[in-house]
Amino acid sequence: MKKTVDNSKSYNWGAGCTAWQFVNSSTLSVIRETMPPKAAESMHKHVRSQQFFFVISGEALFELDGEHYTIKANEGMHVLPNQVHRIINPKDQDLELLVISEPHSHADRIDI
Question: Are 60 and 96 in contact (CB under 8 A)?
């Protein structure tokens, strides 16, 4: 089935962030997310899930195991299980990104 933001389940998270679930199975999750300017998620890790974050537009600041990485449009970041991480939108424009998790990560999150 063709998936778009118009026909996918959406939910809000954090401070004004929105997510659309394109794929939601026990083995794979593909989510498009929008983070408003200056939004940040809390530090966390996943015990089993690996994730790949791909920036569609805007710029993301990743904190990953104590290091900082700037990821721009058309760039991505691979996060392995048990790596402590968070994403920050440091800019004055929305951050649009794809989050691909294998396996599904929602029940696997541990806030730090």
Answer: no
